[in-house]
Sequence to fold (237 residues):
Amino acid sequence: MTRTTSRAALLAVVLVTAAPFGIARFAQAQPARGAAGEFERVRSVMSDRFKTTKLTGDPDQDFAALLIASFEETLFLAKAQLNYGGDRELREVAQKIQDEQQERIDALKKWQVRSREPGYREQPNRTPSGEGPLDRPAQAGPAQAQAAPSSAQPPAASASTANTPLVKGTVQKIDDAAGKVTLDHERIPNIDMDAMTMAYKVQDPAMLKDLKVGQKVRFSADRVDGAIAVTRIQKVK
Fold:
């Protein structure tokens, strides 16, 4: 056997011996390229997703929107793991998340479409929105329930309305029957309410008179008997 042949044979033995280790390790490392940047992007999206979800003031719609945002964040993370992760157990977890969360997202989005169809709110099993937890009357007990006032007088403000600041807002929706107005407004400092779009009860239903959707206003809001209510509202000319 020549020296060249001997070297070739030795090289072949080394390659065959190293294949289960070096080649497999090299192949496993390849998907990790770019993983750091991808997971950094996932973290950025996840931290911003809730902040960019616009609230409407409707508890059902806002719950659905925030839940979708939560599921989509987890789904985004799972897809990153499936693209870059190598551990079989964690990939199985990510795959299960992807299958289940996508199904939940699709169901919630179908509800969003269905809830906007005419007549949906007339469903007999729909519970009307109130001023707080729906189970609060049940927790109050019979003694407290009897002590509740029977008259429907407008609640008194907890502080003088003259001392609450006026903030800018735009009328998005007017609900005369419920005595509520939905406002897209700037921050309300006296109640530490961030800028958002939200439906508010008005202290006096007469405040809704002559208001129009899209109208610019200045208004005051305060906590009245435990609930936030609009105590003043002025049309901006």
